[in-house]
Amino acid sequence: MAFAGKWAFVRNEKMREFAIAAGAPEDKVDKMIDVPITVDCKKDGDFYTMTFTGPEKSIVQKFKSDAEFTEEIGPFGKKRQAIAKVDGDKMAIRGVNEGEAVEKREIIGDEMIFTFVKPGIPFMAKRYFKRA
């Protein structure tokens, strides 16, 4: 699996602006943007597990491709129902409700890049990770 292993946060592009435009509380956005997080990716049979570890908490996402799961978003406990689609070195996670954000995760060279898009927000945001 292309995503397997541990990844360390490098930088963001437009994440603060995107989070605020998507409705995150402005006074809490800084706690989730430029924080040193790691992502540990594993695959066990049909299941993918991505563990996000940050300074305040860890979040574990466990899912199967093309199956609905409960996704915890950010360090504040917000949850949504989502579906993940995994195809080689690309993964897309989208909320099941209309108008929710889509998060694309992909491996390009030695980077894992998360790209965030949401209807009604005229720009995208990105998070970059390098193998740890």
UniProtKB/TrEMBL annotation:
Alphabetized Gene3D superfamilies for the sequence: 2.40.128.20
Listed Pfam families: Lipocalin_7
Superkingdom of the organism of origin: Eukaryota
CDD domains tied to this protein: FABP
Protein's name according to its UniProt entry: Fatty acid-binding protein, liver-like
The organism of origin for this protein: Saccoglossus kowalevskii (Acorn worm)
Name of the gene: LOC102800917
